[in-house]
């Protein structure tokens, strides 16, 4: 008889919270939002892991200034790339980008190979103790999403954060993403509207280039919490472009920037939902 194993993977045994970051469409800033939630959480003293399962376009190593680094295999499993930042919580990162030899290269894999890779990322990474594991997913509802839903079935994540932009709020893609979460039993922690207005660097006036309020309306329509809106802020792009991986304390720099208070509020809204630690569930 084939008895199904219902234990969560041992690699996630000491991970208190698992959050998935999803978006219906590409380019809405899902990886940027993942990075900023991670930096803000680390800046608040949490131990944070980031798992990038965007296998065809892994951008997470670049966002943390970790391009060119590699993950290595110990007897226990894959060791994530660790970014120790003095005076802050720890940051550990896993991405297929660390396994590709050439910067900027990507893979063209069929479903079964992607599934096998995601299985390894969930089962074989030595995360150790983490307060939060953030999982950055590809856009849409692809093979990677189906695989992660399957792999996390018994790991019981806290839920998903859906990232949208004011223009994509009205599209079918966001609705598809919400329906996907409901089908695979991922709780939805809320919606973040990214690139919602541009804050003038001279006068701090916010101009809503693409309309606003769509994310809020969507959250009301689907009865999903609204976590907040993030303006277009060139300082975040500069931070990513100008960091030198060895010397820059990215978390400390991020803490001094205008987006930090916005992400602190987003984190408060998530924590306000009081999802118990997985370790006590
Ligand atoms: N709030 C923001 N302010 C300024 N630039 C932003 C903001 N959010 C995202 N960007 C920029 O937009 C571009 C796309 O962002 P990102 O790579 O995070 O999107 P994505 O949804 O993860 O894309 P993909 O579909 O490739 O997974 C990046 O160059 C990023 O720096
Ligand atoms: S006041 Fe208006 S025009 Fe002047 S810098 Fe600010 S947004 Fe731009």
TrEMBL record:
One Gene Ontology CC term in the entry: cytosol
PANTHER family the record matches: CYTOSOLIC FE-S CLUSTER ASSEMBLY FACTOR NUBP2 (PTHR23264:SF19), NUCLEOTIDE-BINDING PROTEIN NBP35 YEAST -RELATED (PTHR23264)
Keywords from the UniProt entry: 4Fe-4S, ATP-binding, Cytoplasm, Iron, Iron-sulfur, Metal-binding, Nucleotide-binding
Pfam families: ParA
Residues binding ATP, per UniProt: 24-31
Organism, as annotated: Lachancea lanzarotensis
Sequence similarity: Belongs to the Mrp/NBP35 ATP-binding proteins family. NUBP2/CFD1 subfamily.
Protein location: Cytoplasm
A single GO molecular function term of this UniProt record: ATP binding
Chief site of localization: cytoplasm
Classification via Gene3D superfamilies: P-loop containing nucleotide triphosphate hydrolases (3.40.50.300)
Entry-linked InterPro entries: Mrp-like_CS, Mrp/NBP35_ATP-bd, NUBP2/Cfd1_eukaryotes, P-loop_NTPase, YlxH/NBP35
GO BP of this protein: iron-sulfur cluster assembly; tRNA wobble uridine modification
HAMAP family (alphabetical): Mrp_NBP35, NUBP2
UniProt xrefs under SUPFAM superfamilies: P-loop containing nucleoside triphosphate hydrolases
Protein name (record): LALA0S01e09758g1_1
Biological role stated in the UniProt entry: Component of the cytosolic iron-sulfur (Fe/S) protein assembly (CIA) machinery. Required for maturation of extramitochondrial Fe-S proteins. The NBP35-CFD1 heterotetramer forms a Fe-S scaffold complex, mediating the de novo assembly of an Fe-S cluster and its transfer to target apoproteins. Required for biogenesis and export of both ribosomal subunits, which may reflect a role in assembly of the Fe/S clusters in RLI1, a protein which performs rRNA processing and ribosome export.
Binding site for [4Fe-4S] cluster: 200, 203
Top-level taxon: Eukaryota
